[in-house]
Amino acid sequence: MKQGLIILIFYLFGFILGCSVGSEEDIVIYKKEPTVAVADKEEALIVHGEGIGETTTVGIEEPTGPEVDKQEAPPVNGEQERENKTVEHTFNRGDTFYKVLLGFGIPPSEVFSLIESSKGIHNLKRVTTGTTMTLKVDPVQNTVTCLEFGYDNRHMLVVTKTDQGYVASKEEIVFDTRIRTIGGVIKSNLYEDAARAGCSPQLILSFADVFAWDIDFFSDLRKNDSFRLVFEEMYKDGEFVKYGKIIAAQFINREDPFRAFYFECGNGEAGYYDDEGKSVAREFLKSPLRYSRISSRFSGRRFHPILRIYRPHSGVDYAAPRGTPVEATCNGKVIFVGWKGGYGKCAIVKHNHTYTSYYGHLSRFARGMKKGKIIKQGQVIGYVGATGLATGPHLDYRLKKRGQFIDPLKYKSPRMRSLSKALMPQFEECKRQMSAMLVPRFSLPENVDPS
What is the span of the domain harbouring residue 257? Predict the structure, then answer.
């Protein structure tokens, strides 16, 4: 009995072991050589391979056994759905367009194509610190599909990729314009008091330029004079970009009011006009320097600090830091550039048959300044220095009328133009609106920005 039971157990153990070994071997064989039956033409199943452009014939009989993982079919026509990647970059010191785009992985050939296609509008080899550009990049091909490059405050270079290559165009930047008003009282000088009121250096210079024909902001100012200006601020996407033009300005000097209103004549001309529609621009600027102080006036008898003798001083000396730009006071033609005795480095400009101006003791001349050159009012002709007989840096400015020197500070040059009667109604309406903005909303005890 026991003997028979042992034999039965041994038999069962062998049977189980045999089946296990056989199953494992069958699996191995199946993995190595799966059986696929080829179907007859009538029984064939046609499957179109998506994205690979092929037709595959397989049998209707499928192998049995472990499940085979199935992969998803690729996209139609092999195209992958993708979106262009947007990249923004602000150029820093030392950046070049070529180097920056290579850093984004753009191939050199693409960079050269962008530069070449843009030549007619802007040279991308020349970039300025602070300039911002926006790129749209194909993430698969790693090529630029669109470039936006603001090369100045008014225009943008747009380069788009087409089937024929890159195409460049110029677009005008659209700004959100806001009007702002600032006013104040002179306590020390225009620059300090206007800055304290909230004006930027750029605005102060622009304000001084509006009245440059009537007011010398160093020699003419008095304490408690007042100023007020209405100007544009340009915004893009809610951020300040730059200042626009001054549209109205007022300066009360020794209780004598000076007002100027910006007006466009409609024929492409624009400028500043006073209350009567007369241009504030005159034939001559009041001063050849924007900021300076008068160290010596026109005199028939002045004690010369170097020669130690009394002799006439036929001009006005403007003390200013060495290198301060000197501007031509009127349109004209340069008739002399060089060394002229006690004047040192000197430039002489003939304006017409009546007037000639002199600029002496210059440290150097403006680039390209030479005899015969035609210059415009306000153009820089040289820089303040102390050449010749001079104790310190200053400009010796002289004005000659019909061969005789006259006092530049007492000379009142004629206005350049006035508005026509046909334009006066339009100007009066413009002036009425801007005059309201020049009236302070409340009294200003100190220099503050009321807007």
Answer: 176-282+420-438
